[in-house]
């Protein structure tokens, strides 16, 4: 497999829009997340990243600067590329780029079946499992 390229992209750029398309495909179509809950005002100020492999956008995520931490969110990989390290490459790159922000404190809401991947980056679950748009999640943080 060719190496994945992870890029920071400006909101509404061609590559970011491909990431938005992928979010629609996975979250709205595949996982039945309501469209009005998938896209929000945070998209306008978030730091967006895309993963490119074999000439196509195959993954995306966003980072939001909160008061005390950086929140990772909207992590998605296209169906054809899952299980090939795409999400890990994006998370590693995004965390490296933003490590100096908020004292290297990151948090996220992980779908419950994805917590093991985030644990490899030092994240730990906290609190009780909860349901968001009908999907079980845990809050996770690396601090």
Anisotropy-based shape: globular
Category by helix and strand content: alpha+beta
- Residues in helices, as a percent range: 25-40%
Name the strands of the widest sheet in spatial order. Answer: 1-2-3-4-5-7-6
Write the element-wise H/E pattern from the N-terminal end onward. EHHHEEEHEHEE
- E-strand count: 7
CATH class: Alpha Beta
**Taking Cα atoms only, what radius of gyration do you get, to the nearest Å?**
14 Å
CATH superfamily: Gcn5-related N-acetyltransferase (GNAT)
User: Judging by the overall fold, what is the CATH architecture?
Assistant: 3-Layer(aba) Sandwich
What's the total helix number? 5
The CATH topology is given as: Aminopeptidase
Number of domains: 1
- Give the averaged pLDDT, no decimals: 95
The portion of residues forming beta strands comes to 35-45%
Mind summarizing the main beta sheet? Answer: 7 strands, mixed
Low-confidence stretches: none
Distance between the termini: 34 Å
Helices and strands, with pairings:
Elements: E1 5-9, H1 14-30, H2 35-38, H3 42-45, E2 47-53, E3 56-65, E4 70-77, H4 86-97, E5 106-111, H5 115-119, E6 124-132, E7 135-141
Parallel strand pairs: 4-5
Antiparallel strand pairs: 1-2, 2-3, 3-4, 5-7, 6-7
């Amino acid at each position: 497999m060719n190496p994945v390229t992870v890029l920071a992209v400006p909101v509404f750029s061609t590559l970011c829009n491909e990431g938005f398309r992928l979010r629609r495909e996975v979250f709205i179509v595949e996982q039945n997340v309501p469209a009005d809950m998938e896209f929000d005002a945070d998209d306008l100020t978030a730091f967006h990243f895309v993963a490119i492999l074999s000439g196509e956008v195959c993954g995306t995520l966003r980072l939001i600067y909160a008061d005390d931490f950086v929140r990772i969110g909207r992590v998605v990989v296209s169906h054809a590329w899952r299980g090939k390290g795409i999400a890990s490459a994006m998370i590693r790159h995004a965390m490296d780029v933003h490590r100096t922000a908020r004292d290297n404190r990151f948090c996220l809401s992980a779908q419950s079946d994805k917590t093991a991947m985030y644990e490899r980056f030092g994240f730990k679950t906290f609190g009780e499992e909860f349901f968001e748009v009908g999907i079980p999640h845990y809050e996770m943080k690396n601090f």
